[in-house]
Design brief:
20 helices, alpha+beta, Nucleotidyltransferase, domain 5, 19% strand, 8-stranded mixed β-sheet
Length: 632
């Protein structure tokens, strides 16, 4: 059976007519897959069931014990659909296909979706070639890998081609008529010494095959042959005083040594197997894999499992096995695992059908296999510890810093902070900026910018009053209309770029609008560096070495950067407008077209008449007028 599933019945529900209680009673007592949707029609969970009726109904039964994640998921279910299959195995495969396709937010998922490089030797050809590929097909070729480093694979292929002159081209070469390959002249690789020229009949199949056998021996772990061959060539070049070529062979010998070190001998009788270990933290789940080929570890990789913190380890391992091997190029006959996953027999049945040969999931208890699994488990724990430390540092910089600010100000929660700044040059094109931080992290999609409308001249206080009034009046309007608009969410703390004066302006606006939101000023010293916080008529010191201080500085710098960037953009546009206004015969529509067509005044000045004519609405006379204005 292939990975695709032919289903008996597919039932689709219409959301607007969906009555959950009524539809639960219609569920069939058959195996299948169910898809939970939220009110936005997004698929939020995919599951499989031996009996759909029993499984789906259990989510809505109060007596059923559920994890916090599932409780939250159930609250968001607006409707569901299901697919009836012929067997539990078909349901298992379909479930994983749908999970991979839709990435539901409540499913335990393999975060990484990688394919790994293999080295392919086309041994069935008269003149085999070496290739790099990422899929294994049943084409009688020999495959070696997977390897986790594409760079290492390229180095290995180059090394073998240089040493044994094995071709890498896709040309079809028949031993009986080699020149039928339509090669009119020898290729560059022949002249570089990377190919022995079988396309031109310069080597027999038997001679060529001897080199291929040595390539296969090397890829199987016997590196002594390559080292001996390269050493012999190096000595010959040295004796002939061809020291440059001798150096090349010496460098190739060093490459062999590095490649040899990448493969750790495990003495497992030349078998192929994958070794899988799992490490769990409070929030993270990491899966570590070792790839053992011909008794050697040829690579390793770690993976993250999303939405898995509350899941049972057996279920996590089951999800990993299905999701990883669903897209894998190769499934070895033996997979070492730390414990039995849920649905183990079903997974082995599916893997065996995929592989056309028996695949075993083995939990080793002693001996070399158990030691190999222990090594994978140790690596998983090390990676988890590193990630936990990294997460802790990130938390201290973000959420921890926000909590520190809340403690300093005596507030219970500062989940969302908004900071404001004004930018102008002597009152010219005044603009305001609003930046948003949630749990100490910037939310650029929620930043807002304001072009000052009612204030003439350099009056930062009046400009700030306009910005705040527009922002919160807009938000109140959205709230009254029940709209989830861009201004409807209000902050837990407002940060003003300045001290007492800016804070007072903000508090006046909030009071006039009937809003009670804490306001804090970010006070700077004479060198324009953050000095402390102004809150409730007091300047509150904050340690310069604290994460809270660093967060305040980042927010203040970000508000200033965002305002300055907006101001520069407006100023640039205004400058363009002012120059174009002086061109005779060019009205508002053509000025706008020029601004849309060209990035700057410099680009317009450098344009030819023919280039200017390409602007929308321009004829020869208009283009000539612009050109003459800048060059007359």
């Amino acid at each position: 059976m292939s990975g695709d599933v032919i289903c008996c019945i597919i039932l689709f529900m219409v959301k607007r007519d969906f009555d959950i209680e009524e539809e639960l009673n219609k569920l069939p007592k058959k195996p299948g897959v169910y898809l939970m949707h939220d009110k936005e029609d997004e698929i939020i969970y995919v599951g499989k069931a031996v009996i759909l009726r029993n499984r789906v109904r259990s989510y809505f039964r109060a007596s059923t014990k559920k994890s916090v994640k599932i409780e939250q998921m159930v609250k968001n279910i607006a409707w569901f659909e299901y697919v009836v299959t012929d067997s539990e195995l078909e349901a298992l495969v379909l479930e994983n296909n749908l999970i991979k396709e839709n990435q539901p937010k409540y499913n335990t998922m393999l975060k990484d979706d990688k394919t790994y490089p293999y080295i392919k030797v086309t041994v069935a050809d008269d003149f085999p070639r070496i290739q790099i590929c990422r899929r294994i097909t049943k084409d009688k070729a020999r495959y070696f890998g997977p390897f986790t480093s594409s760079e290492a694979v390229r180095e290995t292929c180059d090394l073998l081609r240089k040493t044994y002159n094995i071709r890498g081209c896709r040309m079809s070469i028949d031993e009986k008529s080699p020149k039928s390959a339509s090669a009119k002249k020898k290729c560059l690789y022949y002249h570089m010494g990377w190919c022995s020229g079988p396309c031109d009949g310069l080597i027999t199949s038997e001679q060529y095959r001897a080199g291929v056998d040595k390539v296969i021996a090397f890829l199987s772990g016997d590196h002594t042959g390559v080292t001996g061959e390269l050493t012999r060539k190096m000595n010959e070049a040295s004796e002939a005083m061809d020291y440059e070529r001798a150096k090349e062979y010496r460098d190739l010998i060093e490459s062999v040594r590095k490649i040899s070190e990448r493969q750790k001998i495990t003495d497992l009788h030349g078998d192929n197997r994958d070794v899988i270990a799992l490490a769990r933290g409070e929030e993270s789940v990491i899966v570590q894999m070792f790839f053992v080929r011909d008794g050697k570890i040829v690579g390793r990789e770690h993976f993250y499992m999303q939405h898995a913190a509350e899941e049972d380890s057996a279920d996590i391992l089951s999800a990993f096995l299905m999701q990883y091997y669903m897209g894998a190029a190769y499934i070895p006959k033996e997979i070492l695992i730390p414990f039995e996953p849920s649905q183990a027999e079903l997974i082995m049945q599916w893997m065996s059908r995929q592989n056309d040969s028996k695949v075993s999931l083995i939990v080793p208890q002693k001996g070399r296999k158990e030691k190999l699994l222990s090594m994978a488990e140790e690596n998983a724990r090390i990676k988890l510890d590193q990630d936990v430390e990294k997460l802790k540092r990130n938390r201290d910089r973000t959420l921890g810093a926000a909590e520190e600010i809340a403690n300093i100000l005596g507030l219970s929660d500062v989940h969302r902070m908004e900071a404001y700044d004004i930018s102008n040059i002597s009152g010219y094109e005044s603009v305001g900026s609003m930046v948003v931080y949630e749990d100490g992290k910037p939310r650029p999609n929620e930043y807002r910018k304001f072009k000052i409308r009612s204030v003439e001249g350099p009056n930062d206080y009046a400009s700030m009053e306009e910005v705040l009034t527009r922002r919160f009046e807009h938000g109140l309007t959205e709230r009254s209309e029940g709209s989830d608009g861009k201004f409807s969410r209000f902050p837990d703390l407002i940060l003003m770029d300045g001290g007492k004066g800016q804070v007072n302006i903000c508090e006046e606006v909030l009071g006039r609008l009937g809003l009670d939101i804490p306001v804090c000023g970010m006070v700077k010293d004479d060198n324009h560096r953050t000095r402390g916080l102004y809150f409730e008529n007091n300047e509150m010191p904050i340690s310069r070495s604290s994460e809270g201080f660093h967060l305040i500085t980042r927010i203040q710098d970000e508000a200033h950067r965002f305002a300055i960037t907006f101001h520069r953009k407006l100023r640039s546009k205004e400058q363009v407008h002012s120059i174009l206004d002086d061109i005779p015969g060019i009205g508002p529509k053509r000025r706008k077209a020029l601004m849309k067509e060209f990035a700057s005044i410099e680009d317009i000045r450098a344009a030819s008449v023919e280039r200017l004519k390409q602007t929308e609405g321009f004829n020869t006379a208009a283009a000539t007028a612009v050109y003459d204005f800048f060059h007359g």
